[in-house]
Specification:
Blueprint: E1 2-5, H1 10-13, H2 17-22, E2 27-30, H3 44-60, E3 65-76, E4 79-90, E5 95-99, E6 103-104, H4 107-114, H5 119-127, H6 137-142, H7 149-168
Parallel strand pairs: 1-2, 1-3
Antiparallel strand pairs: 3-4, 4-5, 4-6
The chain binds inosine 5'-triphosphate.
Length: 170
């Protein structure tokens, strides 16, 4: 059985471990799938849609189960938050989605976002590490290393697997 992850980002690939533990004979394939949303999603809706599109695209490219993980930002009354979404899709047309952690972004980052820069680039500038989005990510940096991007996506991955199996067994 082929399980697809719609990204080549190691922080996302590492996070789908629960699916490989549950589906013991599964092989993980990483697809460079298109989220079909903007490079920098600006709402929960758009970020969720990106995750769903990535999951569905994996199925289109040959996976029995497709997984999509997407980072974005969303506005609330008190400022702009980092938001994260994940989705699982399968050959039968089932789709489930789940949201992950949200944290308020510092003003300096928000200013850059409003000028049209991507969060990945802003985080690279801030940390002097062009690979930061593949490692700790914004969530890791702004939580002082308490939670890495991969651990945050792992939480989403567990919620997706749980929902998927619950509905499979109904
Ligand atoms: O290779 P892909 O799978 O596209 O992964 P990505 O990190 O580049 O892309 P996402 O679509 O998940 O995120 C959209 C943008 O927001 C950035 N981003 C989102 N969450 C981030 C985080 O926690 N740390 C750093 N950048 C983040 C990301 O780098 C992109 O510029």
């Amino acid at each position: 059985m082929k399980i697809g992850i719609g990204s080549e980002n190691p922080a996302k690939i590492e996070a789908v471990g629960p699916f490989l533990t549950y589906f013991k004979n599964a092989e993980l394939v990483s697809y460079s799938s298109d989220s079909l949303v903007s490079a920098q999603p600006f709402s929960d809706e758009e970020t969720k849609e990106g995750a769903i599109n990535r999951a569905k695209d994996c199925v289109k490219q040959g996976a029995e189960i497709g997984l999509g993980l997407e980072g974005g930002v969303m506005e609330m009354e008190d400022g702009m938050y980092l938001c994260n979404w994940g989705a699982v899709a399968d050959l039968e047309g089932n789709v489930f989605s789940a949201a992950g952690a949200r944290i308020l972004l510092p003003n300096k980052v928000v200013e850059g976002l409003k000028q049209g820069k991507e969060l990945g680039m802003l985080m690279a500038e801030l940390t002097n590490d062009p690979e930061i989005r593949k490692k700790d990510g914004a969530i890791g940096v702004f939580t002082n290393g308490m939670l890495s991007r991969s651990e945050m996506f792992l939480h989403i991955s567990n919620i997706l697997l749980g929902q998927y199996v619950y509905n499979l067994n109904k």
